[in-house]
Write a structure and sequence with these properties.
Strands 3-2-1-4-5 form a five-stranded antiparallel sheet, with helices on one face. It is rod-shaped and about 90 Å long. By secondary structure, the chain is α+β, with helices and mostly antiparallel strands. The longest helix is centred in the N-terminal third of the chain and has 26 residues. It is 32% helix and 32% strand.
Length: 137
């Protein structure tokens, strides 16, 4: 075709020229961005926070891809009386090491509750321990 005829044809839109890339972005990219935003909000926004005291019964490091520390705190009247248990997650290795260094001692843990976390990769519970201290008996 002569150059004058080529310039007279309308240029295809961006979406028509790159339909494969646009479709891939809509199918894969938008859900991935939505998941990332949802995860960031759920992990950084605390629904509630508080303190619990008791005796740590177990601590274990779990997870296929994202390793977190999972534990159980018994909040009974005495060491042998286990009236209530509190399941918690520790994401920090340093806090987990402090908890593990106090076997048999009464401890107080500070925690934050994060509701709506989209995957168990970030922890098995909603309660994330942010601090720990020994309580004298």
């Amino acid at each position: 075709m002569p150059a004058t005829v080529m310039s007279a044809l309308p240029k295809k839109s961006f979406a028509r020229r790159h339909w494969g890339k646009v479709t891939l972005f809509i199918v894969v990219g938008l859900p991935a961005i939505g998941f990332a935003v949802w995860t960031a909000i759920a992990l950084n926004w605390s629904y509630s926070d508080g303190k619990r005291d008791g005796y740590v019964q177990k601590m274990s490091r779990k997870g296929w891809l994202c390793k977190t520390w999972e534990g159980t705190l018994y909040t009974g009247i005495a060491k042998s009386f286990q009236s209530d248990s509190f399941q918690f997650t520790v994401r920090s290795d340093s806090i987990a090491n402090v908890i593990q260094s106090m076997p048999g001692k009464k401890v107080a843990v500070d925690y934050q509750q994060h509701v709506g976390i989209p995957s168990s990769c970030f922890g098995d519970t909603q309660y994330f321990v942010t601090g720990v201290r020994a309580i004298p008996e």
